[in-house]
Design brief:
The chain is an alpha+beta fold. It has six domains: 118 residues, Beta-Lactamase (2-Layer Sandwich); 123 residues, Beta-Lactamase; 116 residues, Beta-Lactamase, CATH 3.30.450; 70 residues, Helix Hairpins (Orthogonal Bundle); 154 residues, Heat Shock Protein 90; 114 residues, Rossmann fold, CATH 3.40.50. The strands form six sheets. The protein has a six-stranded antiparallel sheet, with helices on both faces. A five-stranded antiparallel sheet has the order 8-7-11-10-9, with helices on both faces. A hairpin with a 6-residue loop joins strand 10 and strand 11. The chain is rod-shaped.
């Protein structure tokens, strides 16, 4: 470095006593320094003064002194407190070692107090005694450079911190010098120790075999001078520890030259280890695949919609049910699938759930397979994002048509049951009214013989009517519980028809209907229970008579078709509407009467008819052209060939008709029932004793040894079964005629009665003629 000086120092210079002006030869050099911004100084330590250039004064914030004279205090007072010791130590070192003095330090400017950086360099001059007496040198304002370096350092720290935080590894390859730089985190990603020099070959050895070719192609494309130099790829590496990691790399290649001379000179890029992300994505894909597999394997429709209500996903069952594609489902939306009458209610339920971010549930009709309307019940759960945002719903929509129909059937059955109970009360009160009136008349002493006969006939008819109602109810219950057993035998249809017509003739005649019977002469034999088959035809004839305005026409006809016998009952009555036809054979079902009046009945007659026909292995159908156009019921039964006749029935045993006085025990906890029956039997010439409990019956029987015991079953202290067993266990009870007299009439009840020792089982109310017939039989041996 050059400095202002008066003399040239020798190895043994003489002490200098003054600071002369620069020689004229130094003027050109001084001007050059000034223009370059360099400041010079020449300090004499013996005289404790310095000679500064104008730039030096300006650098330290002083006013320029034309003489150039300055003091050491002017310099030392401007040293930054933090750097003072270091600068003085550097001066002493340079003086002691006779070396170049060099220091970068801060000063505090005298004029503004601003801190400035300077780069100061100089050399000591020594006298003959070897003392350092002068220091000459130059200094330069490097504040801008220092600030730039500080900014750069801060940026490097920030960049390094940022790359560490996000896990980015940086690399830089100089194609010209074949020099490569790897950041610390780059080494960490690739498991490269710090002492391993950067080597592209080491990276190539880590490449996963399946990803080697794609990466090589991407690198070649990035280095192609015809391209833009961009590189972007995800690939795998296998590190030294054997672990496979996923890497995403981005890089930019820089080129120089134009045309054919264009070539790559540098590639700078960054890498990020995305293994965790890729594993998460793989697990998510696997989870989604499992969900789709389970969803497609489910018979229930599964769907998902976004926050706007757009369909995002539907499973296979959904597509098959609605016969749509995923794309058409997304574009057309769910509105196109719902019945027009249900869209509003479904939409309202959906919007109410969305407003509350609540689970969604709604029922609607939708167009299902083959265009049929089906009922679905939608259940959905809201999807909520990590920040609480509403993402839509995921839900299921099972086909609940069977459930809806069952609920509707239950509702209708409940209504029919209520109607039945009301009708039953009505039907029971109807016969009770004349019974009560007739019973009251019997108490009047002025009753004539004709009135007495009339009262007895009323009571008899109404009791039989009530008995038939109860019998029908019991029969339906037996059929429903599969407890009714048919007593089949070869039967000629003519006999059955005669029995049915005889039973229904009074009503047909009373309503002035015409009855036509059309039976071919060569009717085949059917295997049937004659009583039950007659009951079927009687019910159909009675039904036709009820629902035909007088005078009407009723036709009972039969014809043979192969091995089937078809029996029809047709009328020109009120007819049936289509809705009624669908439910006519159900329990408690009664058709609407367009005449606005009721014909009575419990609504169980046709249900009983169908049950009996089914038990016979046949079918029953109903036809009607509508209200006012009559109806026809057709019963189809299997039959034998025309030439095959059944065996003749054995003649029924005849009683002698003579009344034999018997000793009879009547036991019933219902005292009125026991006493009235005893009174009736005494009028027949029998000796009758009554008991109103099971234990009393056993005690009384042991006293007078009855010929006949009529026992109620449901007595509280001892039931009739046990009474029968105890009576049979006595010596005299072996020959006693035991008759169960009870309201329980099921086949199981009859079986239990027989096992307990009863000879007969009669269901209340007992027909006195039937009881008389039993008592008229010869006594047991």
């Amino acid at each position: 470095m050059m400095a202002y000086r008066r003399t040239t120092m020798t190895d043994s210079p003489a002490p200098e006593t003054a600071m002369p002006s620069p020689r004229d030869g130094d003027d050109a050099l001084r001007l050059t320094f000034e223009e370059a911004g360099l400041a010079t100084w020449d300090t004499d330590f013996l005289q404790k003064r310095s000679l500064w250039s104008p730039n030096h004064f300006r650098l330290f914030g002083y006013t320029v002194d034309p003489s150039g004279c300055a003091t050491l205090e002017m310099w030392s007072s401007r040293l930054h407190p933090v750097d003072r010791a270091r600068v003085l130590a550097e001066l002493n070192r340079a003086k002691r070692e006779r070396a170049l003095y060099r220091a970068e330090y801060r000063i505090v400017r005298a004029d503004t107090g601003a801190v400035a950086w300077i780069d100061s360099r100089g050399r000591f001059l020594y006298d003959a005694a070897g003392r350092g007496t002068r220091l000459v040198g130059v200094c330069l304002d490097i504040t801008a450079r220092k600030q730039a370096e500080e900014r750069l350092a801060r940026r490097e720290v920030q960049l390094d911190l940022a790359t560490r935080i996000v896990g980015v590894g940086v690399f830089d390859h100089d194609h010209t010098a074949s020099c490569t730089y790897w950041s610390d985190h780059f080494r960490k990603i690739h498991d490269m120790p710090p002492d391993v020099p950067p080597d592209l070959g080491l990276l190539g050895a880590q490449l996963y075999p399946d990803d080697r070719e794609p990466l090589q192609e991407a690198v070649a494309a990035a280095h192609d001078p015809a391209g833009d130099g961009r590189f972007s790829l995800e690939y795998r590496i296998r590190r030294r520890d054997g672990e496979v990691r996923w890497i995403v790399a981005r890089a930019q290649t820089l080129f120089v030259g134009e045309g054919k001379d264009r070539h790559p000179v540098r590639t700078v890029g960054a890498e990020l280890d995305v293994t965790d992300r890729r594993l998460t994505e793989m697990r998510l894909r696997e989870s989604e695949q499992r969900f789709r597999t389970m969803a497609d394997g489910s018979p229930v429709m599964i769907w998902a919609i976004d926050a706007e209500g757009t369909i995002e996903f539907v499973n296979k069952a959904f597509l098959e049910f609605f016969e749509v594609t995923p794309e058409s489902a997304r574009l057309e939306g769910w509105h196109s699938l719902v019945h027009p009458d249900d869209v509003c209610s479904y939409q309202e339920a959906y919007e109410a759930a969305v407003a509350k971010r609540a689970p969604f549930r709604a029922r609607a009709r939708v167009r299902g397979p083959n265009g049929a309307w089906r009922w679905i019940e939608s259940y959905a759960t809201p999807r909520i994002g990590p920040h609480g945002q509403f993402l839509g719903y995921v839900g299921v929509s099972p086909d609940v048509t069977a459930l809806v129909e069952a609920q509707e059937a239950l509702r209708e059955a409940g209504e029919r049951k209520d109607e039945f109970l009301a009708t039953l009360a009505h039907e029971l009160r109807n016969p009770l009214a004349p019974i009560r009136t007739a019973a009251e008349m019997l108490t009047r002493p002025s009753l004539t013989g004709e009135q007495l006969l009339w009262s007895r006939q009323v009571i008899h008819r109404q009791v039989e009517h009530m008995a038939r109602l109860l019998d029908d109810l019991l029969d339906v219950a037996r059929i429903t519980r599969r407890k009714l057993e048919l007593r089949k035998q070869p039967v000629g249809l003519g006999t059955v028809v005669d029995t049915a017509v005889e039973a229904s003739r009074p009503l047909i005649t009373a309503r002035k209907h015409g009855l036509t019977i059309d039976l071919p002469p060569d009717l085949p034999i059917v295997d049937a229970d004659p009583v039950r088959l007659a009951q079927v035809l009687s019910n159909l004839l009675t039904n036709a008579a009820k629902y035909t305005d007088p005078p009407g026409r009723i036709v009972l006809a039969a014809r043979v078709e192969g091995t089937l016998l078809r029996i029809s009952v047709k009328d020109n009555g009120i007819g049936l509407s289509a809705p009624v036809l669908d439910h006519i054979f159900e329990m408690f079902s009664q058709g609407e009467d367009p005449r606005g009046r009721s014909e009575g009945g419990l609504g169980i007659g046709l249900a009983l008819v169908k049950g009996l026909v089914d038990l016979h292995g046949g079918t029953i159908q109903v036809f009607s052209d509508g209200p006012g156009k009559g109806s026809e019921f057709v019963v189809t039964l299997p039959c034998r060939s025309n030439g095959e006749a059944g065996p003749e029935r054995p003649p029924a045993a005849e009683s002698s008709g003579e009344t034999v006085a018997r000793r009879i025990l009547v036991a019933d906890d219902n005292q009125d029932a026991a006493n009235t029956l005893a009174l009736l039997l005494r009028l027949g010439g029998h000796e009758v004793h009554t008991a109103h409990g099971g234990r009393a019956a056993v005690a009384l029987a042991n006293e007078f040894h009855p010929d006949v015991a009529l026992l109620d079953i449901g007595m509280p202290d001892m039931d009739g079964y046990e009474v029968a067993r105890q009576l049979r266990a006595t010596a005299w009870g072996h020959d006693c005629l035991l008759v169960a007299l009870t309201g329980w009439g099921q086949e199981d009840d009859k079986r239990r009665a027989h096992e307990a020792g009863f000879d007969h089982h009669l269901t209340k109310p007992v027909d006195p003629r039937q009881l008389d017939a039993l008592l008229a039989r010869p006594a047991q041996a």
